[in-house]
Predict the 3D structure of the following.
Amino acid sequence: MGISAQNTDETVLAELGRRIARTRLERNITQAQLARESGIGVATLERMEAGQPSRTASFIRVLRALGLLEGLDAVIPEPTPSPIERLKLSGRRRMRAASPKEHEPPPSERWRWGDEAEPPPR
């Protein structure tokens, strides 16, 4: 059975529980083993597999123990900025090189530490 927007919350929880149980059984893992690896109680895992509500933290722990946690990234992807926000974030791009500044003094008139050799006379 698939999960869709037309399903009730209870139906979605029951399907998630069935999928967890099926994955556990396909990997030949007992409820006690998965509960221990997840750091939750066996009763919590039994309720989860039965489709009863459980804490999100428990669900995450079970997914991690089964190696399925990365799947949540596909469920709730990182929001991407809109095209306008991307333009604002990228800043302005240079279109050409700048010419040297005219107000800059020539090398002979620039400030020096005083311990450099005197420039040769012109």
Observations:
- The two ends are 91 Å apart (CA to CA).
- The CA atoms of residues 102 and 110 lie 14 Å apart.
